[in-house]
Amino acid sequence: MADPELTPDGHFVIIKGRRWRATDPGIPPEQAARLRSLLMAARRDVGAALRAEDADAQRAARARVHAAKVALGERGTPWWEQNPTERRERWQQGLDALA
């Protein structure tokens, strides 16, 4: 799969004409891969909870999706507005919370 188009500043990716916040490029590859894996697992759990009509499981899974996206820098304070220490703390806290 080809990498998505980035805006000139690298802050956003363009997918099907829509702009989405890019993942923080400062996250070490191993930790970024782990966060993406946790994100995808949480998304699968959202789908399973929807099929099971389990509102509590759906809320919990959506909270994990949100936590993973914040850790990746795709939500919350924009990663380009954070200093390196804040960026490291953000993804580390996300990994700790999702572990």
The global form is globular
**How many distinct domains?**
1
- Fraction of helical residues: 55-70%
Low-confidence stretches: none
Largest sheet: 3 strands, antiparallel
Distance between the termini: 28 Å
The number of helices is 3
Percent strand equals 5-15%
The structural class is mainly alpha
Strand order of the largest sheet: 1-2-3
Mean pLDDT: 96
What does the model show?
- By secondary structure, the protein is mainly α.
- The chain has one domain.
- Helix content is about 55%, strand content about 10%.
- The protein contains three helices and three strands.
- It has helices at about 30-50, 55-70, 85-99; strands at about 5, 10-15, 20.
- A three-stranded antiparallel beta sheet has the order 1-2-3, with no helix packed on it.
- A hairpin with a 5-residue loop joins strand 1 (about 5) and strand 2 (about 10-15).
- Helix 1 (about 30-50) runs antiparallel to helix 2.
- The longest helix is centred in the middle third of the chain and has 24 residues, at about 30-50.
- About 15% of the residues are buried.
